[in-house]
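Progress report, Aim 2. The chain analyzed during this reporting quarter is listed below.
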Amino acid sequence: MQDKHFGSCLTHPEDALIWNEKTRLEEEKEATEALKQKTKSDTLHAWEVQRYKESDTKIFDLPLGHYTRKYDVQDIAAAFNLAWKEGTVAEIFVRIKEHMATNPGLKTNPCFAGLYLKH
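Predicted structure tokens for the chain:
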């Protein structure tokens, strides 16, 4: 919220009422926008916490190529304990493929076996 500097001057009473109403509406709008941003931030945080909790138990039963949405690819990266917040889908895919190639033992893990299937 910006600092507001008020000066003193003689105004018509109706002008003062208009000014007060305008100021009140601006403050309401700012408060509504702040609440909207906080709600959005809280929702996103709760969603990320839930995804993190489920990353240890989630079963990926489709081949890696079937996961195209960013949050699905991020879930796979998180399950492998890879960096998942940074980068594009393509960059995250590269990290996942490298991890899968260097850890072939994951093929026997029921959570990840599906990722190794061919289309």
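The chain is about 55% helix and 0% strand. The mean pLDDT is 86. These observations will guide the mutagenesis work planned for the next reporting period.
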